[in-house]
Specification:
With 82 residues, the protein is of the alpha+beta class.
């Protein structure tokens, strides 16, 4: 699954620089995660780094973007080869 940022986001700016895939960017009102670039840090780290640094715990799994570990690994390989 890709991750998502909820309305509880306080725009603290700590998640964006932690994303190794550059999937996080400032949206109109809050930060957003590009699901095409989010691998939940598979291939880089054992746990999603954005979730680790978020002070308000507003980065859950996106229930509309279910992906297996294998699919996330394949996405990582495609992103890093590009």
């Amino acid at each position: 699954m890709a991750l998502m940022i909820t309305d509880e986001c306080i725009n603290c700016d700590v998640c964006e620089p932690e994303c190794p895939n550059h999937a996080i960017s400032q949206g109109v009102e809050i930060y957003e995660i590009n699901p095409d670039l989010c691998t939940e840090c598979v291939g880089h780290f054992d746990e999603p780094q954005c979730q680790q640094v978020c002070p308000v715990d507003c980065i859950p799994l996106d229930p509309d973007r279910k992906e297996s570990q294998e699919a996330l690994q394949q996405k990582y390989l495609l992103i890093t080869q590009a």
